[in-house]
Amino acid sequence: MSNPTPASRPGAPWRLASVAVMGSVGAASRAFLYGLNKVEVTGLDNLLGVLDRRRSGKRDRGLLTVCNHVSVLDDPLIWGILPLRYAVDPENLRWGLGAHDICFKNRFFSAFFSYGQVLPTHRLWHSPNGGLYQPTITQAIKLLSSPSSVVKPSDMTFTTTGSDCFVSPSAFAANHYAWVHIFPEACCHQNPENTLRYFKWGVSRLILESDPAPEFVPMFIHGTQNIMPEDRGFPRFLPRIGQRIRIMIGQPTDADSLFGHYRSAWKRLVEKSGDPELLKNDPEAMQLRVDVAKAVRDEIQKLRLSMGFAPEEDETAALAETWSKEPNKRKFKSPVDGSLVNRH
């Protein structure tokens, strides 16, 4: 018997729950940002223009937004910049990556964050299930890409540990060509000069392996670190108000125009190996991921400099090995640049 074509979208109860979660969180984030803080957004039309075009049915590729990470509240707080009409349209909103041990630690949290279009992600420093090739990264690649012509019953769910089980968003055709947002630093990095850490290679997989190449929009944020500073005192659980929040959104660009030569190199490696699985530890493939992550970081760095921050004094900050001396802890002061780090 032939495989059925992919279901169009999740059932009505799931969609209603998603509208409720994303709409209420979006409204709360917007009220907090604009009601209790001073917000300056540059380039908002760049993002809204893409979302409007995609909502009108002109979706022939995914959307990848990439941003620095300075606060545990960056997501969902930064999406409060979107007018409320966008917050009740989940099919045109972002899919994000959330820590499995925090966002999915019980049944209630799992349901809430799943309805909120968050994918369960393991951090390798914390869990042996983490890393570049965990199932969640594969889900994100599929969400960015075109839908498959067939779907197997086994594709309807996925597991991140072998014992948990989540509905697979990529099983639904309407979820493809999706908007995926990622913080490639993969931890909160609070530095007075808002410098950048190295970018992890998951973002490289999203760019190299999605098909077709997604639309790419870089972002840079400053000020949310003052809402939830890592060195805050009592009451630690309360966000601080009256802060100046600055968000810059870059021009949307076809990823092929920025990273096309890397994608071509990846395709040659896949053709040569005959199986992408064989490229997990291939030296050329690994170097390609390093180069793509660095290139993505350079795009965010351009926005940072345009906001008036000083250039980096040490270019090795873009390399993973520079940060390898950091302790294997959740929260610490980095010995590399003195920043406060939270691997939330």
TrEMBL record:
Short name of one Pfam family: Acyltransferase
Similarity-based family: Belongs to the taffazin family.
Keywords: Acyltransferase, Lipid metabolism, Membrane, Mitochondrion, Mitochondrion inner membrane, Mitochondrion outer membrane, Transferase
Domain of life: Eukaryota
GO biological-process terms attached to the record: ATP synthesis coupled electron transport; cardiolipin acyl-chain remodeling; inner mitochondrial membrane organization; mitochondrial respirasome assembly; phospholipid biosynthetic process
Any one cellular-component term (Gene Ontology): mitochondrial outer membrane
Protein name: Tafazzin family protein
UniProt-annotated location(s): Mitochondrion inner membrane; Mitochondrion outer membrane
Catalyzed reactions per annotation: 1'-[1,2-diacyl-sn-glycero-3-phospho],3'-[1-acyl-sn-glycero-3-phospho]-glycerol + a 1,2-diacyl-sn-glycero-3-phosphocholine = a cardiolipin + a 1-acyl-sn-glycero-3-phosphocholine
Ranges for region Disordered: 319-344
Domain Phospholipid/glycerol acyltransferase: 63-224
Gene Ontology MF terms: 1-acylglycerophosphocholine O-acyltransferase activity
Organism expressing this protein natively: Hypocrea jecorina (strain QM6a) (Trichoderma reesei)
Chief subcellular location: mitochondrion
Listed InterPro entries: Plipid/glycerol_acylTrfase (IPR002123), Tafazzin (IPR000872)
Membrane-related topology note: Peripheral membrane protein
